Amino acid sequence: MSLGELQNLTMLAVARLGPDAYAGEIGRTLAELAQRDLSVSTIFVTLTRLEDQGLLRSTRGETPRRGGRARRVFEVTEAGWDALRATRAASERLWDGLEPG
Amino acid sequence: MTRQDDRRAPGGWPRRLLSWLLPLDDWTDEFLHQLDIRAADRRPSRLPSALWYAAQLARPSTWSFIFLMRRRRLGRDGGGGALSGVGMDVRYAVRSFAREPRAAAFIVAALAAGLGSVSAMYGVAERLFLAGPRHVAEAHELVRVFLSTEDAGGVRVSPWLPLRTAEAIQREARSFSGMTLYRRDRRLARIGPAVGPMEVSEVDGHYFTVMGAVPAAGRFFDPATAAEGGNGAPTVLSWAAAAAAFGSPGSAVGRAVELLGETYTVVGVAPEGFAGPHLDRVDVWVPVDRTLAEGRNWWLVGRIAEAERVAGSRVRATLEAQAIHDATDPGRFFGWAREGRVVVAPIGSDDGGAVPAEASIARLLMGVVVLLLTIAVANVVNLLLARLSRRRRELTVRLSLGAGRLRLLRLLAVESALLAFAGAAASLPVAYGVGLLLRRVLLPQVAWTSSPLDLRVLTCTALAAGVTTILIALLPARYANRVDIAAGMGRGRNPGAGRHRRVHGGLAMAQVALSAALLMGAGLFAKSFWTIRVTDLGIDAEEILVVELRSLDGPVAPSGSPHETRLYEDALAVARGMDPNGGAALAVGLPFISGYGWSIWVPGRDSIPQLPGGGPFVSAVGDNYFRTVGTSIVRGTELTREHVESGSPVVVVSASMAAALWPNSDPLGRCVHLMRQDAPCSNVVGVAEDVHRTGYREPPSMQFYVPIGASESISGTSLVVRPSGEVPGLAERLGADLVALDAGIDYVDTVRLDTVLESQIRPWRLGAVVLAVAGALAIFVAVLGVYGVLSYAVERRRTEIGVRMALGAERFGIGGLMLRSGLTAGAAGLLFGIGAVMLGGPWVEPLLFETSVADPLVLLAVTASLVACVGAACVLPALRASSVDPVACLRSEG
Fold this sequence. Notes:
The complex is a heterodimer of chains A (101) and B (894).
Chain A (H helix, E strand, L loop, with lengths): L4 H13 L5 H11 L6 H13 L3 E5 L11 E5 L1 H18 L6
Antiparallel strand pairs in A: 1-2
Helix pairs in contact in A: 1-2, 1-3, 2-3
Chain B lengths: L11 H10 L4 H16 L7 H9 L2 H19 L3 H18 L1 H30 L11 E10 L2 E5 L2 E2 H10 L3 E16 L2 E10 L3 H5 L5 E2 L4 H4 L6 E5 L1 H8 L9 E4 L2 E8 L14 E4 L2 H4 L3 E8 L1 H6 L3 H12 L14 E6 L10 H34 L1 H9 L4 H38 L12 H27 L3 H5 L7 H37 L11 E7 L2 E2 L6 H17 L4 E6 L7 E2 L2 E2 L15 E5 L3 H5 L3 E4 L4 H6 L3 E5 H7 L9 E4 L6 E8 L14 E5 L9 E6 L7 H10 L7 E6 L5 H39 L1 H9 L4 H29 L1 H4 L11 H27 L3 H8 L1
Parallel strand pairs in B: 5-10, 7-9, 18-23, 20-22
Antiparallel strand pairs in B: 1-2, 1-11, 1-12, 3-11, 4-5, 4-8, 4-11, 6-9, 7-10, 8-9, 13-14, 13-24, 13-25, 15-18, 15-24, 16-18, 17-21, 19-22, 20-23, 21-22
Helix pairs in contact in B: 1-3, 4-5, 5-16, 6-14, 6-16, 6-17, 7-13, 14-17, 14-19, 14-25, 16-17, 19-25, 19-27, 19-29, 20-24, 25-26, 25-27, 25-29, 26-30, 27-29
């Protein structure tokens, strides 16, 4: 299964963040590392769809402070890693032999 | 910031809307939280907060998220998907209603009454105002031409035009793309094997072209073929007449129709339901008889030309027709028309150029049935709310077990839809019955071609049921949305109980108010109807039979001929012999049937004063006439057999005529010259009470009576019979015996005089009947509503009542408390309802007959009946409240 660009970037951000992969942090990572300033609804729609496709899994995380809200933390599933690898392989095959001028 | 903080959130209504649209869970909470963080991070100089949230709402991705979350929630609640969940809800709703059959039956009956009445009224209203005349192309382009004349009696608008005027406008007016002149008549005809009176329309050759109708069989006649007079002239039959006489419309073409001594050939059959531009049934269309046309009046209908329609005005057409009328000599018999003003009015106008009374009444009734449906819906909502209140625990258990609020709402929506569907199904017989009743009572003369339950009515029922579903689902849905799990699972009071009680009370009050308004309407119409019935017409119209001898050749004998005189004398003898204790007399110029005006001269007077009702009108009557028709002689004597046989010049005058001609002096023995100034003196031998000549609303007019046979200038003899009631089937036996009198008599036409007045009395009769039925239904529903609300209140306040009793309250006092609360709601509703009718007085009073909306008798009757009914509805709950056992009640709470 090959991922779309936004899905690919979101999955990579989740994978990088590990136990800190909750929505707000994912948005900030995408903005900093991928230069993609996405709206809150775009991030939430992408995460929801990826979860519905079984590529991400979410759990309710630790409450960060007393009285604060529990956040939903995402992690990449096995199917998700397969999809990431397939997307990367497809990309590398296409890059192979190309020398950008 | 969480959902609970919504009211304090800075985003205003866009954020609240967003929060409302999203289902409740931690993921959507996090979404809102992230939005709030983004909103707070914005630089202060940028968009105001509410606008920023509105911009978020405008993003497609936001709606995608809402949709994804809603779909997730449905999938979780519905198990196997939304549809299977709906199926489960339907099964659950059916089972739960089966456990409460009485409540379910009441709800379905209330909805059936409301929906059925609305659908039936729609069927009538659709025929009256929406659909226009059947098979007439672009009926909104058609207009009627009227002549408005003014005399001492005021302005009169008449649809009748002299032939010359009508033809001149038809020939010269350019504002119309086509015009046709025609008249209608009831004539004796032989169509196929059947002989009987038929509705005949005499029309010119342009008629069918102007109507734009297409024949069902054969062809229509045109100006060229319509001119073919004499035997074999073309005629067109209605679908119904052709089917009745010849089996099928197609087989009627080429057959002969006999009418007034002429034989016509059927050239075509009109499409089913076609009655020209009006609603009244027509059986036969024949070409204008040119030999008699000049002396008759005609109706004129035109189709406004394209250019005029664009201009959107009938004004130019009116001005043009007026100019043509002014330049035309209407002929020597039509002096009255010379000063007339032309009025061009829509085709749906009545013969006075106004909106027909049936249309006004039907509009009112449409409002009434919508009110009835509203009352039914209010009651159903009340019952559903009470039911939901009992199910509070069930709903909270469902919520606590993980069912979403959307899931609960769906269950309630399915229940409402099920009820509305059952109500709609049960409303079909109601719609059929009420529709049939309305057709027969309101519009018996209309050519109805479809069943009272046609596709349009069924569509209306479906739409009304859809709206009803939404209405009866709204309040319960709001209730379900606010069910609190913690409060619902506990044993404490429902935090919303006070608000719900107010809603219940308000709905019950609204029902009483609407019922009061309907009952007021029923009372006012009944009073109008009663006022009409007791209006002294000066003649006992409801007891008089008018008998006329008819031949297919027209009059049974030449008018005034010895043959006609002998036939009617014989008929009089037969009638008197058959019912010796009844009354019978001969007359020419009967009130409500025909009228003749004569000029008179009175010695010592330069001119004759004018009365508002016009005149002088003359009737020629035989002996025993006044006793037969029930007109009392105020002074002097009535016309006797001696007066008739001697041919002596005598006259009986009406009371108003006597007062106008000889004020403050005795009219008996006075001289009147009739028709010519040099005619011999006719001596006044009696003064009769005033008689209405055309209808119920009529100012006094000058009327006088001469012995029958005194003049041949008026014709059209009738035999008037007043049955004693001792001879069963008098009308039929008289008809059979009179046909045998002479070979020339083909048919004996017998009508009760008041049937002529039926169309005038019909709107009030209909209003009284329908409003009374609607009022009775409404009061029944309202009484149930009040009973339901009070019973519910007693149930809810059981603990409070127990505590009060334990603290020393009297049982009588507790019962009185409940009674007072019911009666207070009833009294408030009564005041609102009566107040609304009073405020609507200017719109309601024109529909009434000499009755004011503040009629004390009606007010008293409505107040008394509503107070009695509401009081009766309160008694049982009050008794139940007073019989609460405080010990048992407190123990169960402990």
